[in-house]
Amino acid sequence: MNMKVNIAGVEWNNPVTVASGTFGSGAEFAEFVDLNRLGAVTTKGVANIPWEGNPTPRVAETYGGMMNAVGLQNPGIDVFCERDIPFLRQYDTKIIVNVCGKSTEDYCEVVERLADEDVDMLEINISCPNVKAGGIAFGQNPKAAEEITRAVKKYAKQPVIMKLSPNVTSIAEMARAVEAGGADAVSLINTITGMKIDIRRKTFLLANRTGGVSGPAIHPIAVRMVYEAANAVKVPVIGMGGIASAEDAVEMILAGASAVSVGTANFFDPAVTMEIVDGIECYMKEQGFEMISDMVGIVK
Fold first, then answer.
1. Is 80 helix (H, G, I), strand (E, B) or coil?
2. Which of 35, 88, 191, 285 is 20 to 30 Å from the Cα of 42, by its Cα?
3. Which residues are catalytic?
4. Per-domain residue ranges for the chain?
5. If one looks up domain 5-56+73-193+214-294 in CATH, what number appears?
6. Average of per-residue pLDDT across 215-235
7. Over 70: is that where the pLDDT of 298 sits?
8. Strand 65-68 vs strand 59-62: parallel, antiparallel, or unpaired?
9. Closest Cα to residue 237, out of 281, 297, 167, 168?
């Protein structure tokens, strides 16, 4: 039985990675998780210059999940290259760098800087609902999404994964747009825009007013969108959204995901990724699957 998967020419040891922003760049989780056992580590968003992020409070608990408006706080590409890449290179896992920006130029600058770095894939975040400029403007307009994909591809030496927003009318249309722009893979879904009000203080719980809702509550929506995207494009799909167990991960794979990404669950169970890797393997043995690819998208 073989757990390996090939995503846009990059071979992972298994189909499990972590969602950007939920795992730092690996160091915070290294005492809970054997990073060698992850198919890939997807880093927190990296910008061309340090970002402070949004004002606090910026995280709130919700029924079946959480809401965040962190705003992609990060130390910038220089610190990332000096500190985080050497740390992750100690492990037998693939490195996916999540890239964020406020303009096409911002994204391209980071991608160009990473061209000669020892990283395996780039995930371009055009879908963050908590950044005033950039992200969401590209992530909700198919033409803009196609154009930024094409721009980034000119500078990228590594395969490019475009991360899609669920806050759109048609996820299939967005997936087709970035595929037309040259995306090597797509990942989805990012968080769903939500709001929470403190009824005692009669004010918004998050300083940003709105935030991205994630966690088990959004899982069925994510499965539906992964299914729609996988049936709209030929490039591999990395499925995410509320995965908290091996069953959730298998569901994504059967819907059409070639790999899965675990996000919010890392916060309430830091070792959950290990359980999911083991659980997928058990499911394959039990159901008689030889390879992950035998399972991908078989529910039509």
1. helix
2. 285
3. 128
4. 5-56+73-193+214-294
5. 3.20.20.70
6. 98
7. yes
8. antiparallel
9. 297
